[in-house]
Amino acid sequence: MPGPHVALSGRGLRHTYGKEEALAGVDIDVHVGEVVALMGPSGSGKSTLLHLLAGLLRPTNGEVWLGKSRLDTASESVRASIRLRRMGFVFQFGDLVPELTLAENVELPLRLTGCSRVRARHTAGRLLEALGIAAVADRRVNEVSGGQAQRAAVARALVHSPEIVFADEPTGSLDTVAGEQVMEALVGAARETGAAVVLVTHELSVAAFADRDLQIRDGRIPRAATIPAADS
Ligand SMILES: Nc1ncnc2c1ncn2[C@@H]1O[C@H](COP(=O)(O)OP(=O)(O)OP(=O)(O)O)[C@@H](O)[C@H]1O
């Protein structure tokens, strides 16, 4: 089990799709509150690693721990509950529910975990304000800009104070200015709540927001690129 300062840990992660080996043995520790960028060429294994760490895929070999919870051996229902309560997600194309307003989208994780409507509205409202999108909170996704929608996706990922947020190319569909606003929102809100962030990006300007970047090559992270946990 990882030490107390490690939010998320992957040990000896190997993953194959049929005969194809996408990850060839990766060790990774993400510390509490740390922002880590996964970088590397197309096909190097970034998305596979993100999906293993988030419990969306089971590794062929290896272990994944979120704090004291082991994910790779947990049942699908336990992993789904952990994702809902203890993780947040931001995808390239926001993935907001188009029928709901931005505010209703942000309230969703709280409502799904039993929070009252009034409390969810209040908590989501504070975050929408902090991320500069309170003025468009009652609009639907197709009535706001891509950057505003993506900031709402960031708010939805953080509203329930998760331990970790996974972001797969969160700025991939945006221009540079909107992308920077989204990264400022993501890293700023994560610092506020103490969440760690693991993000996949191809862009150096996005990786510059991270505390550390890890380069993946052919399904491996060169050993020197990982910093061992202080207490492990
Ligand atoms: N569902 C799948 N079935 C079969 N092979 C897959 C599948 N998903 C990924 N792969 C293969 O596994 C390897 C790693 O893919 P992965 O998507 O993790 O890389 P990536 O670094 O995220 O790439 P990109 O930057 O293009 O998104 C690639 O060779 C890819 O073709």
TrEMBL record:
InterPro entries: AAA+_ATPase, ABC_transporter-like_ATP-bd, ABC_transporter-like_CS, ABC_transpr_LolD-like, P-loop_NTPase. SUPFAM superfamilies: P-loop containing nucleoside triphosphate hydrolases. It comes from the Bacteria. Coiled coil: none annotated. Keywords: ATP-binding, Nucleotide-binding. The keyword ATP-binding applies. Pfam families: ABC_tran. GO terms for cellular component: plasma membrane. SMART domains: AAA. GO terms for molecular function: ATP binding; ATP hydrolysis activity; transmembrane transporter activity. Residues 8-232 form the ABC transporter domain. Gene3D superfamilies: P-loop containing nucleotide triphosphate hydrolases. The keyword Glycoprotein does not apply. This is Putative ABC transport system ATP-binding protein.
